[in-house]
């Protein structure tokens, strides 16, 4: 017993010293979960899951088939698949083509962690369907305005990224394979600033490498909107082009966009919102964004990026709190203020654009690929063809068109060569028989 005690005493001393040094190391270096900041979880009492939200949207469309339609568009690239649901609101469908009407395209949920944006989308659809109402709004006047509009709403552009957030990666903004969808568009694509963060701003391997961006481009080209709004969160702001440079466009269109933003800031932001170009207001330039593409390439007369909420006091890794309201009062305020802001856009947009209201739908120079992409989406939507065949049909038409062009050029070349050869190389035949 004495020998066991003499052996155990040094062991106890060693274990105590080891534990003391381990505790000292943790205190000095902060290498423990206890020292990490608290990360706010998703408030399931306020926010729908992605599946529940889209199911509610689909149920809403079923209840209001006279004014709402839903199209699911799928795309695939190098083993990665994505799908986007698009809700179209249009009254008096029996009158024919939608093109003469004023067209508005709204996209929500482009970044997975910005859950509040998709909740705003649902709120707008509920108001359009008259299942919810805005206070102090004359419904008869609103109906008269909406008679002349076609509104397409993308409630959740980045479904795959949203699912990553719901599985626990609360700071994820990229899509399902790590690409920032708001850096994957072609205008000034791939340029990197000094503060470039590859985790946050990965632009992909090429412009439109991502199926989600491909789908949104197709929708934009086929729908040909007068107004585009890309809805985000992280701050309170009303941005117009450009994102990739510290300037705004010149001339009357820019003045009209700024006029609309100032009115929205006064009526719905209580002058809290930042106004200006995205590149000139945020403090950094963004390259390859959707809004710059819509304005420069698709020639949308009014193209905006809205930021509907931000908690500047949140810690850098507390992403849910930074990008989304966490209490009931703030959550409802954001839904009310920003849904009302969009109905102000519905009213003011046609009036501000004036003559551009009836502009031709195809007054844009786009590539043949972009035109065919948009055409196929439009036909699929209008005639109810299955969207699963979209990519296959698009590839076939591209291939046939290019083969037609190539064969036409070759035939013309051969024809011209034959004429030239016949004219200058024809053998001289003697008129006197030999």
- Strand line-up in the sheet with most strands: 1-2-4-3-5-8-6-7
Based on secondary structure, the structural category is: alpha/beta
Order of helices and strands: HHEEEHHEHHHEEHEHHEHHHH
Shape: globular
The biggest sheet, with number of strands, parallel, antiparallel or mixed sense and barrel status, is: 8 strands, mixed
How many helical elements? Answer: 14
Radius of gyration: 29 Å
Termini, distance in Å? 139 Å
Mean pLDDT: 83
Strands, total number: 8
Helix content: 40-55%
Strand residues, percent: 5-15%
What does this structure look like?
The model is unreliable at 1-8, 15-35, 360-365, 374-393 and 428-434 (pLDDT under 50). A hairpin with a 2-residue loop joins β1 and β2. 46% of the residues lie in helices and 13% in strands. It contains 14 helices and 8 strands.
Keywords:
434 residues, alpha/beta, eight-stranded mixed beta sheet, 14 helices, 8 strands, globular, disordered N terminus, disordered C terminus
List the helices and strands and how they pair.
Layout: H1 2-29, H2 50-63, E1 68-77, E2 80-90, E3 102-108, H3 115-128, H4 139-146, E4 149-154, H5 159-166, H6 198-201, H7 211-223, E5 227-232, E6 235-240, H8 252-268, E7 274-277, H9 278-281, H10 290-296, E8 302-309, H11 319-323, H12 328-353, H13 368-383, H14 390-424
Parallel strand pairs: 3-4, 3-5, 5-8, 6-7
Antiparallel strand pairs: 1-2, 2-4, 6-8
